[in-house]
């Protein structure tokens, strides 16, 4: 359990700066979709009611709030791994609750305006955004937020500490440096 918690709160932050683009895409979509659940009832409570989700008022408000706060966390790169987990779960639930009924032609939601309306191809077409959000948040869970993130900024060691560690390991040789690095990892 301690390893899992450490893994969640100490994500790798050495990733490419371009991870920012993925965070902006996923975080932005979650943020504005969360806002839409409060602005338009047909996107929040109405949609959840039609889908038969239990306690639609509470569920829609909870998910909307999660998307707003979580979207901002992804945009800034703060607690990226932590917020990726509920977003992955949300996307799986969204796919299962909306796309199976499109496949079967029994969707309580309005059918797509253009062909394909039902069946396999309709599911692939209508699920593209959910699929993209699922894969991007899975990527962020695995790879962390990247260098341009608040996680990276908060986990960065002060320059004085970095310089002192470098001086200490420089005089130790290769074997001593390995021991020093292993102590840092353990501690």
Keyword list:
single chain, mainly alpha, 187 residues, 2 domains, elongated
Overview of this protein structure:
With 187 residues, the chain is mostly helical. It has two domains: 2-156, no CATH class; 158-187. It is built from ten helices and no strands. The two termini are 17 Å apart.
Topology diagram in text:
Blueprint: H1 2-9, H2 19-39, H3 45-51, H4 56-76, H5 80-104, H6 120-126, H7 128-143, H8 150-155, H9 159-170, H10 173-186
Helix pairs in contact: 2-4, 2-7, 3-4, 4-5, 5-6, 5-7
**What's the helix-strand series?**
HHHHHHHHHH
Mean pLDDT: 89
Quick one: overall form?
A: elongated
**How many strands, which pairing sense, and closed or not: the largest β-sheet?**
none
User: Total strand count, please?
Assistant: 0
Measured as a percent range, the helix fraction is: over 70%
Produce a short descriptive summary.
Helix content is 73%, strand content 0%. With 187 residues, the chain is an all-alpha fold.
């Amino acid at each position: 359990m301690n390893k899992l918690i450490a893994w969640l709160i100490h994500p790798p932050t050495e990733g490419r700066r371009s991870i920012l683009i993925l965070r902006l895409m996923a975080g932005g979509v979650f943020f504005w979709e969360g806002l839409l659940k409060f602005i338009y009832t047909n996107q929040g409570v109405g949609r959840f009611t039609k889908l038969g989700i239990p306690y639609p008022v509470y569920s829609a408000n909870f998910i909307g709030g999660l998307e707003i706060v979580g979207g901002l966390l992804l945009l800034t790169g703060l607690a990226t791994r932590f917020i990726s987990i509920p977003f992955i779960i949300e996307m799986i639930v969204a796919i299962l609750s909306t796309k199976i009924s499109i496949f079967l032609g029994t969707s309580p939601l309005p059918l797509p305006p253009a062909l394909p309306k039902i069946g396999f191809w309709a599911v692939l077409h209508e699920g593209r955004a959910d699929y993209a959000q699922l894969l991007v948040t899975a990527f962020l869970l695995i790879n962390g937020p990247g260098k341009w993130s608040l996680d990276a900024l908060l986990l960065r060691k002060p320059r004085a500490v970095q310089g002192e560690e470098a001086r200490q390991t420089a005089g130790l040789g290769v074997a001593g440096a390995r021991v020093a690095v292993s102590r840092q990892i353990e501690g």
